[in-house]
Amino acid sequence: DRPTLAAVIFAVVFALLFNLVRRRSALASDTVIGVFSSTAVALGIFLSTMNGRSFTKFNSLLIGDILSVEPAMIGVLAGILLLVLALWLLSFNKLMLSAVHPALADSRGIQVFWQETVFSVAIAVVVTLSMTWVGLLVINSLLVLPAAAARNLAKNMFRYHLYALLAAVVAGIAGLLTSYYIGSSTGACITLYLAAWFAVTFCFRRK
To answer: Of 27, 127, 139, 178, which is the most exposed, with the fewest CB atoms less than 10 Å away?
Structure first.
C-alpha cells in the first residue's frame, strides 16, 4: 500500500498543472488547491475501484498510521528532510519575495514561476510519500494549522517560521506518545494538538 514511483510522478504532474493554472488565471490559490486536491482524490478512488474492486485495502492511505513506519524508511524520510531543508536554506529569500510580491520579485530577476513550481513539487512529493503514515484526511490540517497558529503570534517572518516549526515538532511528539499509550490514530492526535494550540494562540493573537 506504500506509494510507488508512479504515485510520486502523478503528484509532480498535478503540482505542475496546479502552478500553471494558478499562474494563468485570476483564481485564488485556495480555490485552485481545492479543485486539484478533490480531483486527485476522486481520480485515485475511481482508478482503485474499477471493475468492482474494493477500496478497503487502501484505507490506510485515508487514515494513516505513523507508528507503522519501518526502520528502513526512516532513512528515506531523513533524506527527504535534508533535501527540503536545503531547498529552504538556498531559496528562502527568493521564495518569500515571490510569494509576498511577485511583481517585485520578477523585477529583481527572480524566476517567480519556477520558484513557485519547485516549491509546489516539493510539497506534492512530501505529501505523497507521507500519506501512508499520516493519512490523506489529516494531511491538510498538518499543513495548515502550524502556520495558522504561528500567524497569530509572530511579529516578523523569522518568528513566523520558528513558531510554526516548533508547533509542528512538539505536536508531532505529543501526538505520537498519546497515540502509543491510548491506541488512537496518530495523525488525528497530532491534528488535535495543533488545533488546540491554534485555539490558544487565537485567544492571544496580536490586536
So the answer is: 27
**Grid cell listed for 186:** 496518530
Handedness of CA 122, 147, 68, 135 (dihedral sign): negative
DSSP state of 92: H
Q: If pLDDT is split at 50, 70 and 90, which confidence band does 129 have?
A: confident
Q: Which three cell numbers stand for residue 33?
A: 488547491
Return d(Cα 116, Cα 64) in angstroms, integer.
28
Specify the DSSP element, H or E, that contains 111: none
pLDDT for the residue numbered 42? 80
Grid coordinates representing 53 are 474492486
Q: How many CB atoms lie under 10 A from the CB of residue 183?
A: 8
Note whether 35 and 28 are within 8 A (CB): no
Spatial CB neighbours of 135, under 8 Å, sequence gap ≥ 6: 60, 61, 62, 63, 64, 65, 185, 187
**Three-state DSSP class for residue 84:** helix
Cβ neighbours, 10 Å, residue 104? 12
CA 88 to chain centroid? 14
Which of 126, 135, 161 shows the shortest CA–CA distance to 147? 161
Residue pair 111/19 in contact by the 8 Å Cβ criterion? no
- Which pLDDT tens digit goes with each residue over 34-84? 777 778 778 877 877 777 777 666 666 666 677 777 777 788 778 888 888
